[in-house]
Fold this sequence. Notes:
Chain A is α/β, with parallel strands linked by helices. Chain A contains 5 helices and 40 strands. Chain A is flat and about 100 Å long.
Amino acid sequence: MEFSVEQIASFLHGEIVGDGSIKVNNLSKIDDGKPGTLSFLANSKYTNYVYETKASAVLVRRDFTPEQEVKTTLIKVDDPYACLALLLNMVDQATRPQKIGIEENAYIAESAIIGNETYVGAFSYIADNVQIEDGSKIYPQCYIGNNVKIGKNCIIYPGVKIYHNCVIGNNVIIHAGVVIGGDGFGFAPQNGEYVKIAQIGNVVIEDNVEIGSNTTIDRATMGSTIIRRGTKLDNLIQVAHNVEIGNNTVMAAQVGIAGSTKIGSQCMIGGQVGFAGHITIGDNVNIGAQAGIPNSVEANSNLLGSPGIPIKEFARQVVLTKRLPEMNATIKQLQKEVEQLKSMLSENEGK
Amino acid sequence: MEFSVEQIASFLHGEIVGDGSIKVNNLSKIDDGKPGTLSFLANSKYTNYVYETKASAVLVRRDFTPEQEVKTTLIKVDDPYACLALLLNMVDQATRPQKIGIEENAYIAESAIIGNETYVGAFSYIADNVQIEDGSKIYPQCYIGNNVKIGKNCIIYPGVKIYHNCVIGNNVIIHAGVVIGGDGFGFAPQNGEYVKIAQIGNVVIEDNVEIGSNTTIDRATMGSTIIRRGTKLDNLIQVAHNVEIGNNTVMAAQVGIAGSTKIGSQCMIGGQVGFAGHITIGDNVNIGAQAGIPNSVEANSNLLGSPGIPIKEFARQVVLTKRLPEMNATIKQLQKEVEQLKSMLSENEGK
Amino acid sequence: MEFSVEQIASFLHGEIVGDGSIKVNNLSKIDDGKPGTLSFLANSKYTNYVYETKASAVLVRRDFTPEQEVKTTLIKVDDPYACLALLLNMVDQATRPQKIGIEENAYIAESAIIGNETYVGAFSYIADNVQIEDGSKIYPQCYIGNNVKIGKNCIIYPGVKIYHNCVIGNNVIIHAGVVIGGDGFGFAPQNGEYVKIAQIGNVVIEDNVEIGSNTTIDRATMGSTIIRRGTKLDNLIQVAHNVEIGNNTVMAAQVGIAGSTKIGSQCMIGGQVGFAGHITIGDNVNIGAQAGIPNSVEANSNLLGSPGIPIKEFARQVVLTKRLPEMNATIKQLQKEVEQLKSMLSENEGK
């Protein structure tokens, strides 16, 4: 797959400065540009790289004016980053496996209903009464339990396990090793032992959700654990039973959410954050990496630390905690001085 | 599966207040009750929901006396929560896949011994000399390595991987994606590189243990990594080589335990807690979420924080850390005042 | 597999003190020694166990002189720990499954190239244009995506998933459930929703790397996520897109590394540490468990805490934070005393 700069510029409605006949076959970052690749300048911080990059061509803004000699070919476009995203997507479509059909050695229960233009890879197990709608791809070695419903145009990567009765919407992407619908962690203490509370609910994943590798989402005790439309979960995240996450919330890797907690829409959650159970996080909340959230949080909050506090307060705490040795020394010095003052005063008194 | 309220009341030795002929087919939480479901009131905090719930029937305590009109049917029982647990279990038994037999496309070594009333799902791999006792279920896509022994009535969910020589007791539940018996993390530094120390031990899981999705338990260097009877591990937990965890200890998700650490019985460990290696945690220890435990801990301790300290002390630290800006201002004010006092005094002296 | 102490001593060039005809069939730790096993004394802290161990024989240093009666047989060698590592390796070689060949029920694309003396287990999926070199073992239920290249003498344990275009070097060990090459977590906000940025790069794992169970390593947006030669990653670690980790760096379980961060060579990273994205960590850096690293770190640093600070500074902070209640009381006491001094002084003034 090779394109000339002319072809790309024409496709992106761009303007060529330099040799338009040169060919590229991949994309690169401008600080890591290689001959034969097309790079891009989206952040002015990287402008210097335009003059030294080895990339064969670089996407720049229409108003870019070089301040020294440029050896690479420039393609001037309205929005280099948007153009890049478009090209990344094209390359990805052309290189990612695009299989259709049911591979030999897949197990498909007779009662399962599989739509058109779907793919079911070898060694995948499609259990009783599963419904998979048009255009969805199930890679090899997945387990789709009884009565699971998967919407249209989903991609389920290898080795995903979805327990019985869970519901997956449309355009959902689930990466390898994800487990959906494992039993919630519920036990009743009884004579010093723990008796399992059966978990009869399910997990509902709405449209346009993406879930990263090896993340686990437990089924509800009763009702549903819900991930709402457009939310993106990174790798190795733990979502406990009866949790609900709103729309278009983004969570970095290794976040843990304890049972029955509700998280709002449009939130941004950093890596390794932990949420206690049975709390409510409002919309538009930002929580920094490694924070611990023991209580409910109002909408539009920005928290950091464990326990989480407003980011500005946290920053001040960090500074003052660093100054503790100094504060401690000052207190001791003050004690001495006060002692001196006292003795001076009592001497004065005595006079 | 539909039951009349009369049938359920009779089964639970309950007393009906309202229409006993009404039918229910599922269970619900009282704040999320739907028509056709049976709900329950176990916690008096939720009493108000009894008057507004849409659930068709509600389990309440025998001594419950409504303070306003109740539209739903009540079933009065001795212990609503225990009755609920019983019903949850019945619904679960009726809806969870209950397969028996060896599915086509399972690989079973000739030397493996498989008991009666067992299930081995498609694409599972049962290696040489494996022993699986009566009533155990191995879901699809599991790997059971050489010489592994699995006791009676275990449930091994899809995609579990158990390396060679590990031993699983009776009534053990292992959720999807769990890895048992991977090599302990042992390396000897040698000329700036690391040489692998072979890990020849195994993992022993005793009776009645439950292990959550994608948790990893490493094999011992020599001897065994041991999880004792009745202990419950949540998802994404890391148990390193030669760790031992006592009886009936409960651990929330994403806990990490470094090598050779021993944890007692009846402990409760919050999510994302980390334990250093080669330490000993006593019995009945409670450790709050995200704590870091660098040293051994005495029995009956309650710790929080990183490094972990007694919970009360931690709470006081949090309060005082918040007050640092104020303390800092007070110290500065004191410095000024002491300076003033000194200069006043020296003036006095001078008089 | 049973050996006499004489055979072992001869193999290790050791000197026997006691009965050389006694037989052993396994290795044990000296504080957990069982009859029929060979133990070792590498750390003088454990010397007392030599006199009471039930192990049939114990490896000791040549200069070891008992201070009381020894009941077990001693084998005196130059370096007991090195001898142990050698024996562990021998036992491991003898007991770990050593299969060769392609098992029935493995899926191998016609275009895949599989070297000599390799193993491909049942239910593994080897996609188009995969190349697996001599001596590598792919256990059951692995997924090796299009164009993946695996070098010589690798061990890929059951259920590993490697997405298309990734490259694995020689002598690499990857434990069960690892996911390599899942999409990096990249989204562009657009009208309150997130649009996926396609991830067209790959993952490169160099020679002699070992990766623990259920760890996830995401593919680069463009270019490569790289784990360099000799680095060892423990279980449940998250490596985001475009991360680079240097040579011979060791990371304990549950570490998380955000996108584009570069980590040096010869670093030691404790469990549950988190790294922010787009930062650079120098060589020979040690970071203690649970630390949070928001900014770049110079070579040879030793950090602890969140945010991470030099270990000594952290230790002092911990001590002083514990003393906060005392400091607070002292400040209040000083306030009182200064008030008293002031009023005494103003009385004096008044005289």
